Amino acid sequence: MTEVAVLGAGLMGHALALVFALGGHRVRLTDNDAATLARAPGLMVTALTTLAEAGEADGTWNRQRLANAVRCVPALAETVKGATLVIEAVVERPDVKRSLYVELEGLMEPQAILASNTSNLDIFPLVPAGLQARTIIAHWYTPPYLCDLVDLCPGPGTDPAAVIAVRDIVAAMGKAPVVFKQMVQGYVANRLQAAMQLEVYRLLDEGLVTAKDIDDSVLHGLALRIPILGIMAKADFTGLLLMQQGMRNRSYTPPEPHDHSETLDALIAEGRTGVMAGKGYFDWGGRTAEELFRERDRKLLALKQALRAIGPMEGK
C-alpha cells in the first residue's frame, strides 16, 4: 500500500484518486478550487457504482469505504505530507505547473516521486533541480478507471528507479503502462488522435461534413477494426503493397498543423464547451454531466468486457 497524493480534483484528478483507492492505496485529494473539491466525492461514487454494477469493483466497496480510502484535503501541504507518490493533475498551463513544482520542492517527502498527468507539455524544464531525479510523466487516458493505457516518460535527469517504481505500481493495478526511453512529445495515442483531429477540423471548417458524419464514419468503420487489430496489424491484413500504393495514389494533401479551428472557436464563443456545459458539437438534451458520464461508462464497460472475452489479434 502506497500513500498517494493527487493534486487537482477535476475531470482527471478525482478519477485518478478512485483508481488508486481501488488499487489498494491510501489517497489524499486536493484542489485550490473549493467547489471542484466538494464535487469530487459525488463523481467518484457515481463511477464506483457503475463499476460495481458491472462486477469490475469489489462488492465491499461503498460510499463509506471510498470516503475512508480517499480523503479530500483543502491544504496542499497536508495533502502531500507522508505521500510517497504525488500525482499532479492540474490545469495544462506552464506557469501554474511551474509554481506548483517550486512549492512542492519544499513540501514533498525526500524520496517521494512526482508524476505529472500532463497531456502535451514537456514539464521537465519547469521542474526545479531538486525534484528532477524523482519526476516523471505518468499520463492517463479518460476515464482512467476504464482506460488501461498509461504513458510513462522520464526526463533527462530522472532516476530510472523512479520510472520502474511507478511502472510497477501501475501494472499491479491491472493497467497497461507503456514506458518510453525519453520524452515523446504527445506520446503515441495522443499523436494519432491529434492527426485525426486535424482532419476533423479541416472537414468541419470547410463545411464538407457534419459532426455526425464524422462520428458515423468512425463508429461504423474504424471503431469496429481497431479494438481487434490496432493500426499496424490492420496494415498487415490489408496488405503492405496496397498500403504502399495508397500512399503513392493519395489524391489530397493532409492538413498542416494550425493553432485554431473556426468551427471550434465559434462553439466555445457560444458557451458550447462540451458535456460539462450540456452542449458542444452535440446538444446533450439537458442531462447532467453525471448522467452522461454514467451512461458512457456503462457502455465502455460492456465493450471492455466483450473485448476482454474476444481478445485482440496479436503478432510477434
Structure explained in plain terms:
It is a single chain. Helix 6 links the parallel strand 7 (about 150-155) and strand 8 (about 175-180). The chain has helices spanning about 15-20, 35-55, 65-70, 75-80, 95-105, 160-170, 190-205, 210-230, 230-240, 240-250, 260-270, 290-310; strands at about 5, 25-30, 70, 85-90, 115, 135-140, 150-155, 175-180. It is built from twelve helices and eight strands. It has two domains: about 5-180, Rossmann fold (3-Layer(aba) Sandwich), CATH 3.40.50.720; about 190-310, N-(1-d-carboxylethyl)-l-norvaline Dehydrogenase, domain 2. Strands 3-2-1-4-5-6-7-8 form an eight-stranded mixed β-sheet. The chain has about 325 residues and is of the alpha/beta class. The mean pLDDT is about 90. The radius of gyration is 21 Å and the shape is globular.
How is the topology of this model organized?
Elements: E1 3-7, H1 13-22, E2 26-30, H2 34-53, H3 63-69, E3 70-72, H4 76-80, E4 85-88, H5 94-105, E5 113-116, E6 135-140, E7 149-154, H6 160-172, E8 176-179, H7 189-205, H8 211-229, H9 232-238, H10 240-248, H11 262-269, H12 289-310
Parallel strand pairs: 1-2, 1-4, 2-3, 4-5, 5-6, 7-8
Antiparallel strand pairs: 6-7
Helix pairs in contact: 1-2, 2-12
